[in-house]
Each structure stands twice: as structure tokens, then as C-alpha cells.
Amino acid sequence: MNIKHSGVRSRGNSILLDFTYQGERCRETLRIKPTKTTLKEASRKREAILFEIAMGTFDYLNHFPASAKAKKYSKQLGQSITIEQALKDWLKKTERHCQLSTIRGYNSAVYHHLIPTFGHLKLTELAVSHIEDWLDTLSISNKRINNVLSPLRLVFKDAYFDQLIDKNPLDRVRFLPVEQREPNPFTQHEIIRVLDQLQGQARNLFQFAFYTGLRTSELIGLRWEDIDLPNNRFYVRVVIVGRREKTTKTVSGRRTVELNTQAIEALNNQQSFTEDSHRVFHDDKTGQAWQCDQAIRKRLWIPALKAAGLDYRNPYQTRHTFASMMLSQGKNPLWVAEQMGHKDWGMIRKVYGRWIPNN
Length: 359
Description:
Layout: E1 8-11, E2 14-21, E3 24-30, H1 36-55, H2 60-63, H3 68-73, H4 83-94, H5 100-118, H6 128-135, H7 142-161, H8 188-195, H9 200-210, H10 216-221, E4 227-228, E5 233-236, E6 238-241, E7 244-247, E8 255-258, H11 261-274, H12 293-308, H13 317-328, H14 333-340, H15 346-352
Antiparallel strand pairs: 1-2, 2-3, 4-5, 5-8, 6-7
Helix pairs in contact: 4-5, 5-7, 8-12, 9-11, 14-15
């Protein structure tokens, strides 16, 4: 085939276009069989490219969407990336520096909600109306909706920063208001009623929870090496989340907690059960250390409340009970914050203000 076209040549069963863009020589392949007609059409395509380059309207993505240079030079790369792909790429990147429990939450949001709903759209196609229509179909709490939208917000924030999109539709989607649940602590009489329904290790576990304010993850992660009975204190160093041991989520969470009389009593009683073991609190049914809070809630907590004739309150109320009890006794709010693992006493004032004496 002797026909010559500038910047166009055949190569096997394809046609190669050769042009210069932004000072770089570009060679792109058209996977069509070279013939007199196709070479002529390829030459016209090249002339159109050169014209667009001269006019400043050339977009690599429009002509060569599969080219590696499209990402480098495209002015509208967001048109070629689906939300599904962007979310999956973001998850891979995020897995490197997030806790396992956080990644599980992100995976749930991405694969159960975001990809099924928005995954087919390109980054540039998502509109606020898409999100609003989706919100109208949900029957989950505002807090859960905010959590589900979190990965999508982060993906679009990155896409806007990387200039893949010209505007971020998530900037116009407000966080939904979340109603703060009022603490519902137990009275001393109610604590006794609950503990009276328990015995052995179960009683020790909840007595220690009521009188230390530990989170359940901290409670089941407690090790005998963390206990300093001679000095009436213990150390919160690790937690159990998703059946795995890890360090506390925040620096303030890693702390020293003072032991009061009731907490010391619970530990002394517990020693006969597990003092030769690593973990302080064990599941009587399995003889092994607790691995998650759900089993504690279902097998110990709920039956104890029912037997005590009390309405259901989640186990976290043991933590609220400790805070309100200490404040009512006149303990310094800053001390209470330190005992509970808050970085300052702002949260104590906000959540437990009504238990702080005025004088």
C-alpha cells in the first residue's frame, strides 16, 4: 500500500497516529485494519486533532479514552471513571492506615449502599438529586446515613483536589442532624438489683464495669499485667475490637485508672477464676477470654436486666453510671475525664453537666 499520509502509517493490522501535544511526541494506535479508506479516515482524524490542539480545545480522553496519556492530559478525566472504581481504589488506599474496625465500616457502606446505588455513574454524572432521591428510600438512622456517605464524601473530595471533576456535588449535601441520646445511668439501688441476678465471673465483670467506667472493648481487653493492686490502679493499654487486640484508638484512651473499693472487690473475687490466665475476664461457658461484646450483651446483660425487672438499657450505660456517680460525689470533672479516657473535660461538661454540682 503506497498511499502516504503525514503522521499516519500502518503497523500490522493497526494504524498508528503520530502528533505532538504540549511538547511531547504522542503515538496512538487505532486498532483497525489499514486500507485505503481507513488510512484516509485516520488522516482526517489526525487533522482534526491538530486543529483542536491549535484551538486549545483538544481533550485526550475524547479521542483516546484507553490511552495512558488520557489520565495525564485529559481535562475531564472524571468522565471516564465510575464511582464504583473510585470507591474501590479509595478503599485500597485507605486500608493502609486505618484500623480494621474502621475498614469494616467503610466496606459495609461501600458494598452494601454506595456501589449498588451510585456505582454505575461516572464521577462527573453524580448530582445532588441522585443523593436526595436515594435518601428518600432509606429507613436507617441519620447517624448511619452520615456514616454511609462518609466514603463518598472523601472520594469526591479527593477527585476535586486532583482536578478530576470541576465541582463537588457532596459540598451541597448537608450532614443530617443526629439526636444525642441522653445518658440513662443506673441508681445505686438498680446496680444492686442487676448484680444480684449475676454470680461468679459475670457479676465480677459488671461490678468492675459499673465502678470503673470502662468501655466494653477495654473491659474484655484487660490483662492481669495491667493491674496494680498494691497501688490501687490499673492501666488501659489495649482493647479487643473485631476479635482482635489493638492499642487504644486515641492517646488519651491509653491511661491510668484509679481503683475504688467496689472495683478492687471485683478483682479480688475474679482472681480465683483467672489469675493464672492472660486476660482478667473470661466467658464461663467457654472457659476462654471474651472476644466480643455481643455475647456479653445477649447472654449476660439482657437476661440480668429482665430478671431484675428493669427496662432495657445498653451496656454502655454502665459507663454513664460511673461518670454521673463520680460527678455527683463531687469529683473534679477533669479527673473524671482522665479516668474515662477523654482528652479534656469538654465532653464531660456537655454530656454529664447536670450531674456536676453547682457549688
